[in-house]
Amino acid sequence: xxxxxxxxxxxxxxxxxxxxxxxxxxxxxxxxxxxxxxxxxxxxxxxxxxxxxxxxxxxxxxxxxxxxxxxxxxxxxxxxxxxxxxxxxxxxxxxxxxxxxxxxxxxxxxxxxxxxxxxxxxxxxxxxxxx
Length: 131
Known about the structure:
Elements (H helix, E strand, L loop, with lengths): L1 H20 L2 E2 L8 E3 L5 E3 L6 E2 L6 E3 L19 H6 L1 E3 H17 L9 H10 L5
Antiparallel strand pairs: 1-4, 2-3, 5-6
Helix pairs in contact: 1-3
């Protein structure tokens, strides 16, 4: 069972890497967006929030120019501190979110499973000041 989970996550990681090689960021990586195909292959899906990186610094900030609000996108429990605190999304935030998804899929527990979303968001935001 663990081998199958790791195989699915490896496939999903390769899918995300393919997106990144084409300068596309997903911005909503979470277990609910890792799909399993007929032959147990992992796939990254639900690319509704995905964007092509427009800038040379490799970041995209949520703003009206992208047709989005200044609110954070995606599930809080999986988000990187810079996405929550500054609304900045990059390949690195996708990788962070994938690592959180992996944590849940391997351990069977959601990140920050013992606290509510507001406290979770505040705790992640506070880490901005530690990096």
